[in-house]
Amino acid sequence: MAERRRRVESSAVVSVQSQSADATLSSIIRHFKSLPDPRHHRNRRHLLGDVITLAVCGVIVGCDGPTAIAAWARAKQDWLREVLALPNGVPSRDCIRRVLSLLKPEAFQRCFESWIASLVGETTRAGAEPQRLIAIDGKTARRSHDARNGLGPLHLVSAWATENGLSLGQLAADEKSNEITVIPELIDRIDVKGAIVTIDAMGCQKDIAQRIVDGQGDYVLAVKDNQPKLHAAIQDFFSDERQAELSKLPHRQHQTCEQSHGRRDQRYYVLAKLPAAFPLKDEWPDIQAIGVAVRVTEKSDGATSGDVRYFISSCYPSGSRFAQAVRGHWGIENSLHWVLDVTFDEDHSRTRNRRMTDNLSWLRRFAVSLLKRHTSKDSIRCKSRIAGWNNQFLMEVITGTGV
Description:
Layout: H1 2-29, H2 48-60, H3 66-75, H4 77-83, H5 93-102, H6 105-110, H7 113-123, E1 132-141, E2 154-161, E3 166-172, H8 179-189, E4 195-199, H9 206-214, E5 218-223, H10 228-237, H11 243-247, E6 251-260, E7 263-273, E8 289-299, E9 304-313, H12 319-328, H13 331-342, H14 354-373, H15 380-389, H16 391-399
């Protein structure tokens, strides 16, 4: 009797888990219902939603392309048959390659908007200041060049929700252009309303600042010698000779001190309300403040080094929030780009098809976001491997139930 009860309970658990997984994957597929199928109707042996779901899961577990995704799916086909329709079995690598090569990246990413919106809502920090932080930066897929067709490596510009650790979107630059021409279009594509957008010095352009303001967001832009007059004016304002004048003007400060890896880093942040007599104030959209960030590093051997960076801002946040915006911008380098290269080996990807490179790059960025959200203390690489071994863990990553 006890043995029979154990079998019934075990069967019930398996049934509940299967139903839960099925509902979960169905919830993924619904995000792509509006996505047009680019394949000819006579060649559609596999459902588009199934193929995309396999691609999302495959990239999460570390697959680098269609061949690896198809191999992983074959290894997991017994489980996949329980949670996906798969009317004609597991799609081949050619089918997965065809779909990823034909899907328009902008339409593909648009289908993730509701998914991302739900994740942003779930991960908003309690007590956080109302303005979100969004970092925009570029990265080159170094081995994506196509010498046969005279194409260099693909350059991608990404938007990263700094505090949520989420990729909000990406856009590929044209062959003969750079990220300056792409950033305005990316800003139009994502929701910047009520956010502080941070961009490095290359993106310190008047039309980019205007796009952010038009999107009802604010900007904190780094200023360097590519804007020589602006850089010189801010540098002069924060010079030692004018410190007495600065102390009499409205300004906010913040200071941090960190000690690790045999060195001590002291950082000083000052954000000053834009002076009435500041030159160029009428040339930059809604400029409200100028700032400086100073870093002083003391090593264990007594050597000292440092750097000074300048900024313009369309808002006047607290000193600590200004520091978070400035420091948090590098999260896109440390938390996204570095992980893409080290964990997903993106720089060594030899995919030549431009659309497939773009789509796979987006899937990697989204995979990083999902893996980071899981509360496991393991590294991103380890989480990816566990997801490949453990179906339940993979479902937790996809659904956020492990958060």
